[in-house]
Amino acid sequence: MIKNKKNENTESLILEAAKSIFQTKGMDGARMQEIANEAGINKAMLHYYYRSKQLLFEAVFKNAFSLLAPQLNTVLNDDSSIEEKVINFSSNYISFIVEHPYLPNFIIQELNRNPDFILKMKESSAFPNLEKFKKQVDFEVEKGFIKKIKAEQLFINILALNVFPFIAKPLIQNLIDADDTAFQQIIEERKTEVADFIINSIKK
Prior knowledge:
The chain is mostly helical. The chain is 79% helix and 0% strand. Helix 4 (53-77) packs across helix 6.
């Protein structure tokens, strides 16, 4: 039991160290030795847990995606209305990313570097599924609750308006001349601004 606990602690240290290095240097720029140094272990111990940098990166990526996937699944699969989904997703997602600011860039960086890796992720039961969301959008369009729109387009709009500010933070800060404090205030305001913008675009 103690041994297992020690193993879990070591693995957690490795994943946290790898996350930090991969975040700043990317997959190609990171070195196993510096990850070992960051984790406070030797390189042999690191290789005992992860035989290669690719396997370690995949473990870190899966962990990152496992944190984000539930946020997507909530908006897609709960029983709330489309309007409520938009409101809840914008508020919950932004609050979540404020706590895990590395996630959007980290995930997009890997998807750009290795597009086929997402196929592995799709095998997971936690991978977001759009089917229920599509049916709900079609139903609300048919009933006249919202304007005619494809569910895929609506979902992309929701995702893009919430994700982009975090990915483009340095660009946005310089374009609007906002320091970190001002940017955080803008992000906080977007919890309602994004929801209002999307809802106003689809409601009749």
